[in-house]
Specification:
The protein has no helices and 9 strands. The protein has one domain: ATP Synthase, domain 1. 0% of the residues lie in helices and 68% in strands. The protein is globular, with a radius of gyration of 12 Å.
Length: 84
């Protein structure tokens, strides 16, 4: 997967950077329901509730379970700051 075709996902916890990876899509547990982020998503900031951040990288699905936090989406970058 070429970097130009990707979203760069970063998952940060209070202790460390947990994940930094190019992905094709990300699904997040937003406070008003789950939502998906694809390439060229509009800029957005949302709070997150307990649930899984599910992503697809190189055709393989992965996930990180979060307890609470927030996400910033801007210019094909998704930055999740959360407790895990």
């Amino acid at each position: 997967m070429a970097a130009a075709d990707c979203i760069f996902l970063t998952v940060l916890t209070p202790e460390r950077a947990l994940l930094e990876i190019n992905v094709s899509k990300v699904e997040l547990p937003g406070a008003k329901g789950r939502f998906m982020v694809l390439k060229n998503h509009i800029p957005l900031i949302s709070s997150l509730v307990e649930g899984k951040v599910v992503y697809v990288a190189d055709g393989k699905e992965g996930s990180v379970t979060v307890r609470a936090g927030f996400v910033e989406i801007n210019e094909n970058r998704v930055i999740v700051c959360a407790e895990v």
